Every structure is written in structure tokens, then in C-alpha cells.
Amino acid sequence: TDTLLQTQQLVQKKKLDKNTSEAVYFISDNTARRLTHDYFERVYPPAIGNHHVFLIANDASYTWSMSWSASPKRKDVYAYYPENDRRDLLIEAQRDVFSLSPKGEWITYYNMEDSTWYSKNITTKEVNNLSSSAGTTFYTEEFDYPSTPESYGFGGWAAVTKGKQKIEYALIYDRYDVWMVDPSGKEAPRNLTNGRASEHTFR
User: Who contacts 28 (Cβ-Cβ below 8 Å, separation ≥6)?
Assistant: First the structure.
């Protein structure tokens, strides 16, 4: 069964014909391994350094729904380990932004269904609610379409030195402010900008 309508295939034929795939090269044994298997997959490496894990998003199972749905396309998100070519499913039908922490320990993602930011530990699969205790809304407040509102976006990662350790925090946005959240869920969300009172937007 085709995952794309015939009309979509015709429009995207040149792009599909020229589709390329990311790969990883192992210097130690002079071998390469392809990371993606088809047109519907995208690779998301960690922000810095050489790491043992990547994120791979595959939207093949949901492409057909775009023929009637105005919502963002869903995708399944996997942790991929190139050393042994293993994939672990992390999130099913993800509709909004997600990000892998620089050290490759956490994935942070926004759930449009309950308007909440979550983190998931790549190894233990522990899930933490990062935003419900913040006392603000992270969905697009001025969204006026007959569908579920998206988030205001993700601001990246920040490393804070505490003693001899560097702790990684995720930066998330509400309508006006930048919030720093701890992916382990141990610390409460922290508003870094306090722009809501004056209606000034910080990014």
C-alpha cells in the first residue's frame, strides 16, 4: 500500500529520486553504516560531540493522514545505536517538537494532547512531567484554528556547572518567557525572563 497519494508522488518525484541517506563511519574498522532506511526517516544527532546514540524520526505510518488532517504530521521517534544497529522506540505519533540532550541522555518533547512538556531517559525510559508545575501555559494561546494548538517552541539546552558537575537543562517557551527545566524532574521549572507582566516576549 502506498503511503503517499499518487498526486503527491508525482509532485515529489524529483525529490524522491534524489533522496539521500545519512550514514556513520567507524574509523576503527573502516566501515560505514546507513542510518536511515527510506525517504520517510530523518536523523537528529546530539547537539555536540561524538555520541553513541542518535534520534531517528519516521513518519511513514502517518503520511496518509495528511490527506484530511490539518494537524502537524505525526512521527515515531527512536533512539538509534549505530554500534550495534539497534533501535528503541521512544515516542509514538509525536506531533510537536522534540530534542536530544547534548550528552545523549534525555529526549525532551512537547505533547500536544495535554499541552505538556515531558522528558524521557534514553536508557531507563523514565518519563518526567516538566511543565505542569510552572503555573503557565505552553500551548499557543492565540491559536484560533479548529485543531490542537502547538507549543511556542524549544530554546535548546543550557549547561550549568554545579560543583564538579555540568547539569544539562532544557529551555522551553511560553508566550512571553523562557523557562529552564530539569529533565530529571528533580528541580522545579525556573522562569528566566519574567516578561509576562510587561507583555514583553523573550527568546
Answer: none
Whole-model pTM? 0.85
Burial grade of 53 (CB within 10 A; 0-12, 13-18, 19 or more): buried
Q: Which grid cell is 107?
A: 529526549
Q: How far is CA 50 from CA 31, 47, 81, 98, in A?
A: 16, 9, 12, 20
pLDDT in tens, 116-172: 999 999 999 999 999 999 999 999 999 888 788 999 999 999 999 988 888 999 999
Which three cell numbers, joined as nine digits, stand for 57? 524520526
What region, left, alpha or beta, does residue 134 occupy, with left being phi > 0 and alpha being psi -120 to 50 degrees? alpha
Q: Is residue 101 within 8 Å of residue 123, measured between CB atoms?
A: no
Neighbours of 59 (CB within 10 A): 19
CA 89 vs. chain centroid, Å, equals 13
Predicted confidence (pLDDT) per residue in 158-178, tens digit:
999 988 888 999 999 999 999
> Of 95, 83, 65, 78, nearest to 37 (Cα)?
78
DSSP letter string over 78-103? Answer: EEEETTTTEEEEEEEEE-S-EEE-TT
Nearest to 153 by CA among 172, 179, 130, 133: 172
